[in-house]
Design brief:
By secondary structure, the chain is mainly β. The protein has one domain: Porin (Beta Barrel). An 11-stranded mixed barrel has the order 1-2-3-4-5-6-7-8-9-10-11. It is globular. 7% of the residues are buried. The mean pLDDT is 91. It holds the Pfam family DUF2490. Keywords: Signal. This is DUF2490 domain-containing protein.
Length: 234
């Protein structure tokens, strides 16, 4: 086992050494909404305005609309659609601006250890492009920790940490499934019961091919909106 780990380590070092790694700086601006319709069903929305070279150039525009079903208190399923426009940017740009239509299915589990919330799950994407359809799996792990709480127990300032591993799972992979990793950390500032502002950093490590790697340093600014639309007795 030790010999296998040493071989994997040296293969990884050799791969990184021969690849052209580009360190780049971006900013992503998010609006994310979750709207409860019934005890079990939710509508979810998202818009991402992603910029390269801080805010100077386009990187990506993404609009999402989906729904989720809370099977149990801590287990949920979801599905939805994304309209994504990708732009040429940075040291390893795509050949031209292109649009993807994405359908996704997701599964998540939440748990709590005292005041610490933990979630993990999977998201499967079908990326419909002009000339092909690609399939990608995301493995997600995240946690939320309150830093400052009020006397009533409400969070005044919290911290979120998450990691996503991206695996290509289609015939175009050439036996190289791992394509991307995103590690994210942010401070969460509740504005009121409905809105939360998050300010953080994401490192996006993308393997384009054997010769090209992106290591993107990204400022993350996110507005979360949560609303209960169920009818209540007056």
């Amino acid at each position: 086992m030790k010999r296998v780990l040493i071989i994997i380590f040296f293969v990884f070092i050799c791969f990184v050494a021969r690849a052209q790694k580009a360190d780049q700086f971006n900013s992503w601006w998010y609006y994310s909404g979750k709207y409860r319709l019934t005890e079990k069903f939710n509508v979810e929305t998202l818009y991402s305005w992603s910029r390269h070279n801080f805010v100077k150039e386009w990187q990506q525009s993404k609009l999402r609309f989906g729904a989720s079903y809370d099977y149990l208190q801590n287990i949920s399923f979801g599905a939805g659609y994304e309209w994504v426009v990708l732009f040429p940017y940075g040291a390893h740009p795509v050949t031209e601006k292109r649009t993807e239509h994405r359908i996704y299915e997701q599964f998540s589990i939440k748990s709590k250890i005292k005041t610490i919330s933990v979630n993990y799950g999977m998201l499967l994407e079908q990326r419909i492009m002009k000339d092909r359809t690609r399939h990608r799996l995301r493995l997600v792990f995240g946690t939320k920790v309150p830093i400052i709480r009020s006397e009533e127990g409400k969070t005044i300032l919290g911290f979120s940490l998450s990691n996503q591993v991206f695996l290509d799972v289609d015939k175009y992979t050439d036996n190289k499934n791992f394509s991307q990793n995103r590690i994210y950390g942010a401070f969460d500032i509740p504005i009121n019961n409905a809105f939360t502002l998050s300010l953080g950093y994401m490192n996006q490590y993308i393997i384009i091919n054997d010769r090209r790697i992106e290591n993107d340093h990204t400022l993350m600014v996110t507005f979360f909106h949560k609303l209960d639309l169920r009818k209540t007795d007056q």
